[in-house]
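Troubleshooting: if your tokenizer reports a length mismatch, compare against these two reference records.
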Amino acid sequence: MNNRGQVNIGMIIMLFIGIVVVAGAFLPTIFNTQNQLTDKQDVLNQSVSTVTGYLDDSDVNESINYSIYTQSTWKVSSCPLTSVVIRNGAGTVLADDTDYTLDEANARYSLLNTTKTIPVTALNLTYVDYSYCADGYNTSSGGRTTAKLIGLFAALALLAFVTLGVKEWAEIR
């Protein structure tokens, strides 16, 4: 009896399972983890309540600090926030050192008493966009470069698996 058809189907199933498992399950996880190790993460439209900062309809208490993000100890010195944009409740972009003061290292800001910071909505919110370092972020450029190789080698391993499987399948046929 000829087993050639069974071997061909078995090889195709093995390749299919290998590709689906590696490409479908492992590669996205590998690349997501690699992204957290090598790239700052972006946050858009984080709302921060500033209700406590208003003394009345036209006066802002400039001594109150609002927390954007809770920084770990190592992030204060090695990875401060970047690309910080603060907008008032109406969506108008506020100017650093004119409408607010920013402490990037500690991820805090305080409003200054200007017309742009006076609340124009009942919610008394500000909206903050920023980039931060996720836990596990490599502060060393060499470490980030090395971590970026992880995904490359995973993709090359998948390519090698497929190439060898197709070659084996072609020889059996």
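Reference record two:
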Amino acid sequence: MSASRIFVACALAAALGGCGVFTPEKNALSPDYIEPKKWLSSEGKYEDAIVRHIQCEIMSGIWEATSPRNPALNVPWLKSSKWGTAVTLTITVEDQSALNPGVSFINPIGTAASAQSFTLGLGASGSANATRTETIQFTYVNSDLWAQAKASVRSASDHLSCEEAQHGVMIESDLKIWQFIYDKAVIASLGNGTSSYRGWFPYNTFTENLTFVAALGGNITPTWKLTRISANNSGTFLSATRTNTNQLTITIGPIGTYASDKGPTQLSTGAQNQHNTQVQAGAIATQIPTQPSTH
């Protein structure tokens, strides 16, 4: 998605009073649509690809840390059915537009040779801001992910690659989740995370946050200068900005409730509270830079 195409789409919408006034489309250049006969939405397929990508990287981390080829790492609890991984994915799109027209009226005084004049400047400003945020949360049972990882490799000595699920940059790139999981397994194996037997659960929980923010924008300032009138000689006449924020929070901890007809799998109360706190903190942090300026 090029900056020029984003700007053209948003600038045209701003000129019609749309950019920042109506609910933003998640894809600025293509509205979400349902495919004929397949009944799949375009944005739904995109978001599903992100979720499959995240799932693969978690599977890879658990597999690498507990693979039989790594006898030095003693973390059997990581792949047990008593531990799970909670994931919260937040997708935010924000449209902003601003209109700042200005005009100056020039009234010459005296003869043309005197080069004296009286100038009256008039200006106005207006801005609009609309934010759309969608959040989903789900929890895996680690033993299920480990079983899927085992079925995906040819032998216990193989690595589980997620390159096929990585299709770009930001949230679609290599998220290095396996490093996060593997490094915590190293700490647990060395026994520095517990004063008890190192083969038991050493952690209450461990969490990772990833946030990607991309902002694309542009401005248009046509200028007119006539004998008695000039327009937009200073400042920006029309500006438009599209900001995309993807936030990912992953928490690994003991399972408190397993999936049933009464509800989905959830981590223990302490682990879930830690996860929710991180999600809320991330949401606050991403909102601070987007507040409109008072200057």
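Descriptive notes for reference record two:
- The radius of gyration is 27 Å.
- Residues 42-66 form the longest helix (25 residues).
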